[in-house]
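Lab meeting, item 3. Inverse folding demo.
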């Protein structure tokens, strides 16, 4: 079994920073891709940032220049450093990973709430 455990969400004022972490554990052969998605009530879950095993990164236009995604392969962990936070960044942030265990499978974390007050 593979699990994703997220941490680091919380309440912050606009202009502040937060760092999210997501650690994968279990019977892992390799991790192809890890990413962060955001969901707000009434809207579809959207990609915030992603990183491949080759360290290729991708960001939503709304977070470019403010957020940075990174990964520690030795710890099977992905991080999302969020700076200059805006109220529009509020939402539930979900970790996502394509992991080779017995088979390749797309896993999701349980989500962590990020609230940015104005």
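The presenter then showed the designed sequence:
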């Amino acid at each position: 079994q593979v699990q994703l455990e997220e941490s680091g969400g919380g309440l912050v004022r606009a202009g502040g920073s937060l760092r999210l972490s997501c650690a994968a554990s279990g019977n892992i052969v390799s991790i192809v891709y890890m990413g962060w998605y955001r969901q707000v009530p009434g809207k579809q879950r959207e990609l915030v940032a992603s990183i491949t095993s080759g360290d290729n990164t991708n960001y939503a236009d709304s977070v470019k220049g403010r957020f940075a995604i990174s990964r520690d392969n030795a710890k099977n962990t992905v991080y999302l450093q969020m700076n200059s936070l805006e109220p529009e960044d509020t939402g539930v942030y979900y970790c996502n990973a394509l992991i080779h265990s017995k088979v390749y499978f797309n896993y999701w974390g349980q989500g962590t709430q990020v609230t940015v007050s104005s």
